[in-house]
TrEMBL record:
Protein name, as recorded: Elongation factor 4
Assigned keywords, A-Z: Cell membrane, GTP-binding, Hydrolase, Membrane, Nucleotide-binding, Protein biosynthesis
Family affiliation: Belongs to the GTP-binding elongation factor family. LepA subfamily. Belongs to the TRAFAC class translation factor GTPase superfamily. Classic translation factor GTPase family. LepA subfamily.
GO biological process: positive regulation of translation
E.C. designation(s): 3.6.5.n1
Taxonomic lineage from the root: Bacteria, Pseudomonadati, Thermodesulfobacteriota, Desulfuromonadia, Desulfuromonadales
Pfam families xrefs: EFG_C (PF00679), GTP_EFTU (PF00009), GTP_EFTU_D2 (PF03144), LepA_C (PF06421)
GO MF terms, alphabetically ordered: GTP binding; GTPase activity; ribosome binding; translation elongation factor activity
UniProt xrefs under InterPro entries: EF-4, EFG_III/V, EFG_V-like, EFTu-like_2, G_TR_CS, LepA_C_sf, LepA_CTD, LepA_IV
Binding positions (GTP): 16-21, 133-136
Substrates-to-products reaction catalysed: GTP + H2O = GDP + phosphate + H(+)
């Protein structure tokens, strides 16, 4: 295919600004979607995504568009996830494009997440142009929003596209802008093959399916290809494009986007960011930007019903087939029984995995508080990695503990700089740089302990900046730190699954707040429940959940049988996320109460 007539682009938008609706309109106007399909939002495949309003996995759709110049263009729309946990995937999806359009709700204006991805796109040297959506709304303020786009992001809005995905206006202008403003790919079709994997998933019949963007050369069915990061070679069994349904093709040439099936057994061998080349005629260097993503956050996942253990293990194995950044290994807790210690990219990733396990595989779970990986040097000189408070050796055996630090880049408008600096300082951050990028946009760079980030940093950042801040981070190094294990005792017994590793300076406060929070979540039981926080043997805080008053329960058991049944059913429902720990029933919220602890002011 002549690269002149290809455009590879991505749509960047803040949640709810109308990306999916707009994408569906593009499919509709270009005749890519049948009548029946118009009712569904085609690009958001997973239910979970639709409910949470986020796009988790990148996907690509090919559109054929006959432009006003009479030519037919192939437009590849590459969808990107929109959360800091997945910023590596986003960066690879963007690397597969020459351009991106920034969709902004004309009644809302520029918002947080929008910015993170726009900056990623600018970093990837993409041509970025804005589109105003929802201009049909009476509350639309195109002039104000254009000003914002110019001031905050620095994009030219003089010939901005005005659209309403709802009413279907401005869609052709949008398509024309894609053709006119985004440059065509400029690969060398005769050079050795270089194709970027920007998404991959597992298919039970075909193994790993890799979505690729061919940069140089061409890939054909039957070719022997080599994955440059692993050095493994495979034969191409099937090639195709999504238009929007899978359609096989014999060849993908320079500039094209499509999928490759090559008998690759699992997604771990078709990693996002890897380069595909030919076995016989290899490219001399892979495409830049490949990273081995590693889990940053760990937490325990336990079946509420111990009999579900095998079911849970099977479900996790299935999930892992599709998610190379999710890891798990068996773990045993005194309080919770047999479960798994799981690794995630971040908190959102953790929530998504938990929800999928519950929803798709029907296992009810208790999740323990997330933690990072610490490095402990013992008095014997051994170095051990600890990703669970329970694995932390006793104080007398510890020579030193080191914790992971990250380098965080935070983009904010001027007015929030003070608030963000205060937050970073509170989180034990070390300031590196404050860079004034444009008249109103500042980039704040901080070294921060990951341990503080996984708890609630992102939510706090969003709330203090009214959603305007964007956060991106990368692992930096390990630093020695004064960390202690904080134990929680329920009626005098340490509940191992509730233990945490915290900074010594914050232990007192965290312990106090944690038991206070837990008290709110634990329902009254037949007896009094004492909650205590302790460092070593020293109790630093105590709260009591009072016993149920006898007469209240007595009343419930009237003679009416249907009433009683209803009550029992209600109890069963309520039990769903409860775990019997010793003699006390603890709800899921109690295990994650640490995420709700308010910060010291
Ligand atoms: N009035 C009006 N509403 C719109 C328009 N475009 C989208 N919407 C509505 O805005 C809401 C969000 O639209 P989506 O397309 O789901 O937004 P999105 O950006 O894809 O959201 P995420 O997938 O959650 O990131 C939906 O209720 C749409 O019906 C528009 O042009 N005008």
């Amino acid at each position: 295919m002549d690269q002149q007539f290809i455009r590879n682009f991505s749509i960047i938008a803040h949640i709810d600004h109308g990306k999916s609706t707009l994408a569906d309109r593009l499919l509709e106007v270009t005749g890519t979607l049948s009548e029946r399909e118009k009712t569904d939002q085609f690009l958001d495949k997973m239910d979970l995504e639709r409910e949470r309003g986020i796009t988790i996995k990148a996907q690509a759709v090919r559109l054929n568009y006959q432009a006003r110049d009479g030519q037919t263009y192939v437009l590849n729309l590459i969808d990107t996830p929109g959360h800091v946990d997945f910023s590596y995937e986003v960066s690879r999806s963007l690397a597969a494009c020459e351009g991106a359009t920034l969709v902004v709700d004309a009644s809302q204006g520029v918002e947080a997440q929008t910015l993170a991805n726009v900056y990623l796109a600018i970093d990837e040297n993409l041509e970025v142009f804005p589109v105003l959506n929802k201009i049909d709304l009476p509350s639309a303020e195109p002039d104000r929003v254009c000003e914002e786009i110019e001031e905050i992001i620095g994009l030219d809005t003089s010939d901005i596209v005005l659209a309403s995905a709802k009413e279907g206006t401005g869609i052709e202008d949008f398509l024309e802008a894609i053709v006119k403003r985004i440059p065509p790919p400029q690969g060398d079709p005769e050079a050795p093959l270089k194709a970027l994997i920007f998404d991959s998933w597992y298919d039970s019949y075909q193994g790993a399916v890799a979505l690729v963007r061919v940069f140089d050369g061409r890939i054909r069915k039957g070719d022997r290809i080599r994955l440059m990061s692993t050095g493994r070679s495979h034969e191409v069994l099937k090639l195709g494009v999504f238009a929007p349904h899978a359609m096989t093709v014999d060849e993908l040439g320079a500039g094209e986007v499509g999928f490759v099936i090559a008998g690759i057994k699992n997604v771990q061998d078709a990693r996002v960011g890897d380069t595909i080349t030919h076995e016989a005629r290899q490219a001399d260097a892979p495409l830049p930007g490949f990273k081995q993503v590693k889990p940053m956050v760990f937490s325990g996942l336990y079946p509420i019903d111990n009999g579900d253990y095998d079911l849970l293990r099977d479900a996790m194995e299935k999930l892992r087939l599709n998610d190379s950044s999710f890891s798990f290994e068996p773990e045993n807790s005194m309080a919770l029984g047999f479960g798994f210690r799981c690794g995630f990219l971040g908190l959102l990733h953790m929530e998504i995995v938990q929800e999928r396990l519950e929803r798709e595989f029907g296992v009810d779970l208790i999740t323990t508080a997330p933690t990072v990986v610490y490095r402990v040097t013992t008095t014997k000189g051994e170095l051990i990695e600890v990703e669970s408070a329970n694995k932390l050796p006793d104080v007398q055996y510890i020579e030193k503990i080191e914790e992971p630090f990250i380098l965080a880049s935070i983009h904010v408008p001027n007015e929030f700089v003070g608030a963000v600096l205060a937050l970073c300082e509170e989180k034990r951050g070390v300031q590196r740089e404050i860079r004034y990028l444009t008249a109103n946009r500042v980039m704040i760079i901080y070294e921060l302990p990951l341990n503080e980030i996984v708890l609630d940093f992102f939510d706090r950042l969003k709330s203090i900046t009214r959603g305007y801040a964007s956060l991106d981070y990368e692992p930096l190094d390990y630093r020695e730190s004064s960390l202690v294990r904080l134990n929680i005792l329920v009626n005098g017994d340490v509940v191992d699954a509730l233990s945490l590793i915290v900074h010594r300076d914050k232990a007192q406060f965290r312990g106090r707040e944690l038991v206070a929070r837990m008290k709110e979540f634990i329902p009254r039981q037949q007896f009094e429940v004492a909650l205590q926080a302790a460092i070593g043997n020293k109790v630093i805080a105590r709260e009591t959940v009072k016993a149920l008053r006898k007469d209240v329960t007595a009343k419930c058991y009237g003679g009416d049988i249907t009433r009683k049944r209803k009550l029992l059913e209600k109890q069963k429902e309520g039990k769903k996320r409860m775990k019997q720990v010793g003699s006390v029933e603890l709800p899921q919220e109690a295990f994650l109460a640490i995420l709700k602890v308010k910060e010291q002011k």
